[in-house]
Amino acid sequence: MNRTAAPDATHLRPGLRLVIAGTVGQHRTTRYYAGPGNRFYELLHGSGLVDERLDPDTAFRLPDLGVGITDLVLERVERAGHEPEVLIHRREFDRAIRMVGPTAVAFVSKTAATWYARGAGERLPQGYGELSWTVAGVPAFVLPGPSGANNGMPLALRLALWTDLADFLEHLEGTGDPSMRTRA
């Protein structure tokens, strides 16, 4: 397998409740969601998905709280005489999801979900929430992005949509018990 095509598995392990996925090109980061204005950790905690407020420097704790983070790898391919195209490394991503076996996969933006849908031949997401298709057989969900670039969407609305993910997970797990929110 092409190592650059494989999603980062640093924050993944079997048995996680949730895997949250964004997109990455050739330049990977070692600090997830660390950009200026990024509200990822605030939304993750505020929604009840984790019971501990983390930050980019403590993201290594996410798997202990039942949450993994990774990226769908995109590669810009240029061939002489053709328009550039984007290659989506979906098989490698699906393989990583099967290895983890989460209850759900959440794309951290409509852009990430759209890239996956294109690569899988699925219907493009029209809004936020549960998707009509799965990722490697795992139910999928799309969230509004947490980055500073998405600050035009009110924080209260973004938080409500992230809380919908927590409710979706409870439904999938067949429990309304908040203690299930941090299963590791």
From TrEMBL:
Keyword Phosphoprotein among UniProt keywords: no
**What keywords are annotated for this sequence in UniProt?**
DNA damage, DNA repair, Hydrolase
Q: Does the keyword Protein transport apply?
A: no
Q: Which GO terms describe its biological process?
A: base-excision repair, AP site formation
Q: Which SUPFAM superfamilies match?
A: Uracil-DNA glycosylase-like (SSF52141)
Instruction: Give all residue intervals belonging to the Uracil-DNA glycosylase-like domain.
Output: 13-165
Q: Which InterPro entries match?
A: MUG/TDG (IPR015637), Uracil-DNA_glycosylase-like (IPR005122), Uracil-DNA_glycosylase-like_sf (IPR036895)
Record-level Gene Ontology MF annotations: pyrimidine-specific mismatch base pair DNA N-glycosylase activity; uracil DNA N-glycosylase activity
Protein name (record): G/U mismatch-specific uracil-DNA glycosylase
